[in-house]
Design a protein that fits this description.
The structure is a homodimer of 323-residue chains. Chain A has 323 residues and is α+β, with helices and mostly antiparallel strands. The first copy, chain A, has ten helices and ten strands. Chain A has two domains: 9-108, Phosphorylase Kinase, domain 1 (2-Layer Sandwich); 120-321, Alpha-Beta Complex (Aminoglycoside 3'-phosphotransferase, Chain: A, domain 2).
């Protein structure tokens, strides 16, 4: 949540001039994105462009060679009618430009706000939109390996070390064995697509029960659709006390299956995949926790939130996802 | 530059419902304000309201008892045609509301971007608009004492201590004596108005050479108009190498005097007032510097920038502002 780079009005105006979007009218640095700087930009607009945009500057974590995939996927899905922002290309057709040695992209602004406590109807719409995205990605010409797969999660937890994990919480070292079991799961035989892989409520814009935007595709990759669904389920279906909300979880699945029916193999594996998805957030949060000094101004996310969700899926087992 | 408080979509929608502005469409936390949290809000709008707003939550430094002055001044100046954002009042007519124990206000959104390297024509427009504001404030019914006056600056520097100041830069302890001289200046006999008192380029929105907004009135107070002009001059007239830009400084003064001619007493005191204005930023930056750990993520502003400007005004003397 930060703007890492200061861009002056003159620099922004010069950048905007490379796009057919009219003149700069307003620019506000916005507090979104953990590895990017973002500005909400307003221009006088052009016939083809609209007049509001998100300008993203890629600060870290993003490989430049991945940008054509991320931005191309947005354009592909948007053209297919999915509620994702399209990339605005510059006058030479480029999807991103370099500025002060960093890549920047101009992306369509979409209305909507992110729900904090999703209702079942909102979850149903999100499930439906996730399936829509999976199906629409079928003829996308590019692919990208998942860099946050179950094997990587295991490696992250092992690198934290059992002592390091125990220093956060005595229950955490046991997650290494759980992550080893998840890493042994074979997902490549399940139906594949381009997946969002990080569809938390923060990354969904809604107006009432309507999804107006899926955003922040910077973990998107080629992978099992069931992994995306399980990740979304783990991210959406727990209330502010971290208790499972069955109405929300069920509606999410039903919404998804309105467009795409799960195979029996996917359904059978969903509990184990959901446990693996929980461990991804345990791993990344534990790593961040150990990397962040106790007295830093940054709020650390508690890895135990997803340990608790792992236990929920472990206990609930197959009956949770039974059709 | 931060959003200190998280407000969920549901909380924001409930807050917005207290105003006649339509339904919430979008909300982005913006990276502006050092003592407030701010959101750029879009709604479906109403006949009287427009559809974009800045929602400000007052986090610290602001006294609640000062809010009627700050917000009332915005409304007064806006009604007089000054380019300042008006306050949107709630359905009961209140200019601010309390949320989670903090005051929040909904303020008109204005277009424009803040210049980083102002041109003379931009400075002329800012000078003109500052005079417009001073004249328009004449019949405003409220007043507020300056809490950052020359006496307070001296107290801040004395509290830093000569050793503390020397730890930042060996030249800084000498500013205590300079601040003592400034504190002895008598400004109360000069023409008074409601003044902005912090009109840095950051706090001015422009489209080309037109001022579209003066914002961030949270240092506004009753005081000498010459103090506001000198502060603005010290904030605008130096280039990126901290060298005086005579064309910008002259244009600012000329623009001001197109609307309001300085008295001979004001003109004679301007160099000393400008030196005092510089010391205000030396004092606040030195205090922040000593309060901020060396390894904090926050960028500290260098007090020496305004020590250098103090020397400029000291050396230039009366001839700088001679008519």
């Amino acid at each position: 949540m930060a703007v890492y780079t200061h861009l002056g009005a003159e620099e922004l105006a010069a950048l905007i001039a490379h796009y057919d979007v009219g003149e700069l009218v307003s620019a506000k640095g916005i507090a979104e994105g953990v590895s990017n700087s973002n500005w909400l930009i307003e221009t006088t607009g052009s016939a083809s462009s609209g007049d509001r945009f998100i300008l993203t500057m890629y600060e870290r974590r993003i490989e430049l060679t991945d940008l054509p995939y991320f931005l191309g996927l947005l354009d592909h899905l948007s053209a297919k009618g999915c509620p994702v922002p399209r990339t605005i290309h510059d006058r030479n057709g480029a999807a991103f430009r370099m500025l002060d040695g960093k890549a920047v992209a101009l992306i369509e602004f979409l209305p909507g706000v992110s729900p904090t406590q999703p209702t079942p109807e909102q979850a149903r719409a999100v499930g439906w939109t996730l399936a829509q995205m999976h199906l629409a990605s079928g003829d996308f010409g590019m692919g990208r390996a998942n860099t946050m797969g179950f094997g990587e999660n295991l490696a992250v937890l092992e690198a934290c070390g059992k002592a390091g994990l125990a220093s956060i919480n005595p229950e955490l070292p046991a997650t290494v064995d759980a992550a080893r079991a998840a890493a042994a799961l074979e997902l490549s035989a399940l139906p594949q697509a381009q997946i969002h892989a990080d569809l938390f409520p923060d990354n969904v814009l809604m107006l009432g029960d309507q999804v107006t935007g899926m955003i922040d595709f910077y973990f998107a990759c080629t992978g099992a659709m069931a992994l995306d669904l399980a990740t979304t389920h783990a991210a959406w279906s727990f209330d502010s006390n971290n208790a499972y909300d069955a109405a929300v979880g069920t509606a999410l699945l039903e919404g998804y299956e309105e467009l795409r029916t799960l195979s029996s193999e996917e359904r059978a594996l969903l509990p184990e995949i959901a446990k693996g998805a929980c461990l991804r957030f345990v791993a990344s949060r534990a790593e961040d926790w150990l990397d962040t000094p106790d007295d830093a101004l940054v709020t650390r996310k508690d890895p135990m939130q997803f340990v608790s969700r792992w236990h929920f899926y472990d206990k609930a087992g197959a009956k949770l996802f039974a059709s």
